[in-house]
Design goal:
230 residues; alpha+beta; 8-stranded mixed sheet; 4 helices; disordered N terminus
Protein backbone atom coordinates (compact mmCIF):
# COMPACT_ATOMS: atom_id res chain seq x y z
CA UNK A 1 0.00 0.00 0.00
CA UNK A 2 1.44 3.34 -1.03
CA UNK A 3 0.40 6.09 1.37
CA UNK A 4 1.28 9.75 0.87
CA UNK A 5 1.09 12.44 3.50
CA UNK A 6 -0.42 15.60 2.10
CA UNK A 7 -0.98 18.81 4.02
CA UNK A 8 -2.83 21.05 1.57
CA UNK A 9 -4.96 23.86 2.91
CA UNK A 10 -8.12 23.45 0.84
CA UNK A 11 -7.04 24.78 -2.56
CA UNK A 12 -9.59 22.87 -4.63
CA UNK A 13 -11.13 24.41 -7.71
CA UNK A 14 -9.57 27.18 -9.73
CA UNK A 15 -8.92 30.26 -7.62
CA UNK A 16 -11.12 29.40 -4.63
CA UNK A 17 -9.58 28.55 -1.28
CA UNK A 18 -12.31 27.29 1.07
CA UNK A 19 -11.46 27.53 4.77
CA UNK A 20 -10.92 24.23 6.54
CA UNK A 21 -12.54 23.30 9.80
CA UNK A 22 -10.29 24.01 12.79
CA UNK A 23 -8.17 21.12 14.00
CA UNK A 24 -8.13 19.21 10.71
CA UNK A 25 -4.65 17.89 10.05
CA UNK A 26 -5.08 14.36 8.68
CA UNK A 27 -2.69 12.23 6.67
CA UNK A 28 -3.63 9.74 3.97
CA UNK A 29 -2.79 7.00 6.49
CA UNK A 30 -5.31 8.51 8.92
CA UNK A 31 -8.00 8.36 6.24
CA UNK A 32 -7.21 4.70 5.50
CA UNK A 33 -7.35 3.85 9.19
CA UNK A 34 -10.66 5.64 9.66
CA UNK A 35 -12.48 4.67 6.46
CA UNK A 36 -10.61 1.64 5.12
CA UNK A 37 -12.72 -1.12 6.66
CA UNK A 38 -15.98 0.65 5.85
CA UNK A 39 -14.95 1.20 2.25
CA UNK A 40 -13.82 -2.40 1.85
CA UNK A 41 -17.13 -3.68 3.21
CA UNK A 42 -18.96 -1.61 0.57
CA UNK A 43 -16.70 -2.21 -2.42
CA UNK A 44 -15.37 -5.75 -2.01
CA UNK A 45 -18.78 -7.39 -2.70
CA UNK A 46 -19.08 -5.28 -5.87
CA UNK A 47 -15.70 -6.48 -7.09
CA UNK A 48 -16.53 -10.07 -6.17
CA UNK A 49 -19.78 -9.88 -8.14
CA UNK A 50 -17.85 -8.61 -11.17
CA UNK A 51 -15.26 -11.38 -10.78
CA UNK A 52 -12.43 -8.94 -10.04
CA UNK A 53 -9.89 -9.44 -7.27
CA UNK A 54 -9.83 -7.04 -4.33
CA UNK A 55 -7.98 -4.79 -4.21
CA UNK A 56 -7.73 -4.37 -7.99
CA UNK A 57 -4.52 -3.60 -9.83
CA UNK A 58 -5.92 -0.80 -12.01
CA UNK A 59 -9.17 1.13 -12.14
CA UNK A 60 -10.69 3.73 -14.43
CA UNK A 61 -13.31 6.36 -13.72
CA UNK A 62 -15.49 7.41 -16.65
CA UNK A 63 -17.42 10.64 -16.07
CA UNK A 64 -20.22 11.85 -18.37
CA UNK A 65 -21.10 15.54 -18.39
CA UNK A 66 -24.50 15.07 -20.03
CA UNK A 67 -25.89 12.56 -17.52
CA UNK A 68 -23.75 13.58 -14.51
CA UNK A 69 -22.75 9.97 -13.99
CA UNK A 70 -19.37 8.51 -13.07
CA UNK A 71 -18.66 4.83 -13.70
CA UNK A 72 -16.03 2.79 -11.86
CA UNK A 73 -14.29 0.09 -13.93
CA UNK A 74 -11.50 -2.32 -12.98
CA UNK A 75 -9.02 -4.08 -15.25
CA UNK A 76 -9.24 -7.87 -15.00
CA UNK A 77 -7.13 -10.15 -17.24
CA UNK A 78 -6.79 -7.39 -19.79
CA UNK A 79 -10.52 -6.60 -19.91
CA UNK A 80 -12.29 -3.70 -18.18
CA UNK A 81 -15.13 -4.83 -15.89
CA UNK A 82 -17.85 -2.51 -14.65
CA UNK A 83 -18.01 -2.25 -10.84
CA UNK A 84 -20.52 0.47 -9.95
CA UNK A 85 -21.86 3.94 -10.77
CA UNK A 86 -21.66 7.20 -8.85
CA UNK A 87 -23.86 10.23 -9.26
CA UNK A 88 -22.00 13.49 -9.91
CA UNK A 89 -23.84 15.83 -7.59
CA UNK A 90 -22.40 19.08 -8.95
CA UNK A 91 -20.27 20.37 -11.80
CA UNK A 92 -20.20 23.61 -13.74
CA UNK A 93 -19.75 24.65 -17.34
CA UNK A 94 -21.02 23.17 -20.59
CA UNK A 95 -19.94 20.84 -23.40
CA UNK A 96 -16.36 21.54 -24.38
CA UNK A 97 -12.91 21.30 -22.78
CA UNK A 98 -11.39 23.65 -20.26
CA UNK A 99 -9.40 26.34 -22.04
CA UNK A 100 -8.31 28.85 -19.41
CA UNK A 101 -8.33 29.88 -15.78
CA UNK A 102 -11.73 31.04 -14.59
CA UNK A 103 -13.86 29.64 -17.43
CA UNK A 104 -15.65 27.37 -14.92
CA UNK A 105 -15.26 24.43 -17.29
CA UNK A 106 -14.70 20.82 -16.29
CA UNK A 107 -11.88 19.46 -18.49
CA UNK A 108 -12.48 16.82 -21.15
CA UNK A 109 -10.04 14.04 -21.98
CA UNK A 110 -8.09 11.36 -20.15
CA UNK A 111 -6.33 12.22 -16.91
CA UNK A 112 -4.49 10.65 -14.01
CA UNK A 113 -4.76 11.15 -10.28
CA UNK A 114 -1.64 12.98 -9.18
CA UNK A 115 -2.40 13.79 -5.53
CA UNK A 116 -4.70 12.80 -2.67
CA UNK A 117 -5.85 15.56 -0.29
CA UNK A 118 -6.98 14.22 3.11
CA UNK A 119 -7.65 17.77 4.37
CA UNK A 120 -10.01 18.93 1.67
CA UNK A 121 -12.64 21.51 2.52
CA UNK A 122 -14.97 19.13 0.65
CA UNK A 123 -14.30 16.11 2.89
CA UNK A 124 -11.72 14.28 0.72
CA UNK A 125 -10.40 14.99 -2.76
CA UNK A 126 -8.39 13.50 -5.61
CA UNK A 127 -6.47 15.91 -7.86
CA UNK A 128 -6.38 15.40 -11.63
CA UNK A 129 -3.25 16.08 -13.67
CA UNK A 130 -4.94 18.85 -15.67
CA UNK A 131 -3.51 20.34 -17.81
CA UNK A 132 -2.11 17.16 -19.32
CA UNK A 133 0.27 16.95 -22.28
CA UNK A 134 -2.56 17.21 -24.83
CA UNK A 135 -4.01 20.30 -23.11
CA UNK A 136 -0.62 22.01 -23.05
CA UNK A 137 0.13 21.17 -26.68
CA UNK A 138 -3.18 22.57 -27.93
CA UNK A 139 -2.78 25.69 -25.81
CA UNK A 140 0.67 26.28 -27.28
CA UNK A 141 -0.67 25.89 -30.83
CA UNK A 142 -3.60 28.22 -30.04
CA UNK A 143 -1.37 30.79 -28.36
CA UNK A 144 -3.24 30.39 -25.08
CA UNK A 145 -1.69 30.69 -21.61
CA UNK A 146 -2.96 30.60 -18.02
CA UNK A 147 -4.78 27.28 -18.46
CA UNK A 148 -5.84 27.03 -14.84
CA UNK A 149 -5.56 23.92 -12.71
CA UNK A 150 -6.49 22.44 -9.33
CA UNK A 151 -9.22 20.22 -10.76
CA UNK A 152 -10.46 17.68 -8.22
CA UNK A 153 -12.93 14.88 -7.70
CA UNK A 154 -14.20 15.63 -4.20
CA UNK A 155 -16.95 15.14 -1.67
CA UNK A 156 -19.86 17.43 -0.98
CA UNK A 157 -22.57 18.67 -3.32
CA UNK A 158 -21.19 21.96 -4.66
CA UNK A 159 -18.36 22.66 -7.08
CA UNK A 160 -16.96 25.08 -9.65
CA UNK A 161 -14.93 23.36 -12.32
CA UNK A 162 -14.50 20.17 -10.31
CA UNK A 163 -16.58 16.99 -9.90
CA UNK A 164 -18.48 16.78 -6.60
CA UNK A 165 -19.55 13.19 -5.96
CA UNK A 166 -20.70 13.32 -2.33
CA UNK A 167 -18.84 12.28 0.79
CA UNK A 168 -19.51 8.52 0.64
CA UNK A 169 -18.25 8.24 -2.94
CA UNK A 170 -15.24 10.43 -2.15
CA UNK A 171 -14.30 8.06 0.69
CA UNK A 172 -14.48 5.04 -1.61
CA UNK A 173 -12.46 6.60 -4.41
CA UNK A 174 -9.87 8.12 -2.08
CA UNK A 175 -9.26 4.86 -0.21
CA UNK A 176 -9.17 2.86 -3.43
CA UNK A 177 -6.64 5.22 -5.01
CA UNK A 178 -4.48 5.15 -1.87
CA UNK A 179 -4.54 1.34 -1.79
CA UNK A 180 -3.54 0.73 -5.41
CA UNK A 181 -1.52 3.91 -6.04
CA UNK A 182 -2.62 7.04 -7.84
CA UNK A 183 -0.70 6.04 -10.98
CA UNK A 184 -3.07 3.10 -11.37
CA UNK A 185 -6.19 5.30 -11.52
CA UNK A 186 -7.21 6.87 -14.83
CA UNK A 187 -10.08 9.32 -15.32
CA UNK A 188 -11.89 9.76 -18.64
CA UNK A 189 -14.17 12.82 -18.81
CA UNK A 190 -16.50 13.01 -21.80
CA UNK A 191 -19.20 15.52 -22.81
CA UNK A 192 -21.61 12.77 -23.92
CA UNK A 193 -21.98 9.02 -23.73
CA UNK A 194 -20.69 8.25 -27.21
CA UNK A 195 -21.36 4.54 -26.72
CA UNK A 196 -24.94 5.20 -27.78
CA UNK A 197 -25.18 8.93 -28.50
CA UNK A 198 -23.82 10.52 -31.70
CA UNK A 199 -21.23 13.24 -31.69
CA UNK A 200 -22.64 16.72 -32.11
CA UNK A 201 -21.43 19.64 -34.26
CA UNK A 202 -18.99 21.91 -32.49
CA UNK A 203 -20.00 25.30 -31.19
CA UNK A 204 -19.08 28.07 -33.62
CA UNK A 205 -16.37 29.45 -31.33
CA UNK A 206 -14.85 26.05 -30.46
CA UNK A 207 -11.25 25.38 -31.55
CA UNK A 208 -11.04 22.97 -34.50
CA UNK A 209 -9.02 20.43 -32.49
CA UNK A 210 -11.97 19.79 -30.14
CA UNK A 211 -13.56 17.55 -32.78
CA UNK A 212 -10.42 15.39 -32.78
CA UNK A 213 -10.44 15.29 -28.98
CA UNK A 214 -14.04 14.09 -28.90
CA UNK A 215 -13.16 11.45 -31.49
CA UNK A 216 -10.33 10.21 -29.26
CA UNK A 217 -12.69 10.11 -26.28
CA UNK A 218 -15.31 8.20 -28.29
CA UNK A 219 -12.70 5.62 -29.28
CA UNK A 220 -11.49 5.28 -25.70
CA UNK A 221 -15.05 4.68 -24.52
CA UNK A 222 -15.15 1.48 -26.54
CA UNK A 223 -13.05 -0.12 -23.81
CA UNK A 224 -16.02 0.27 -21.45
CA UNK A 225 -18.99 -1.27 -23.33
CA UNK A 226 -22.56 -0.78 -22.18
CA UNK A 227 -23.19 -4.51 -22.60
CA UNK A 228 -20.77 -5.20 -19.74
CA UNK A 229 -22.64 -3.02 -17.25
CA UNK A 230 -24.59 -5.10 -14.76
Amino acid sequence: MRLISVLLVGLLCFHSSPVLALGVNRTVADVITHYGDKVESRLQPRFAFAGVEWPPQRVSLVAFKDTRLMELWALNDGVWQHIKDYRVKAMSGRVGPKLQEGDRQVPEGEYRIELLNPNSAYHLSLKLDYPNAFDRQQAQEDGRSNLGGDIFIHGGRVSTGCLAVGDSAAEELFVLAAMIGEANVSVLITPRDYRFRPRQPLAENAPAWVDDLHGQIANRLQLFPLADKR
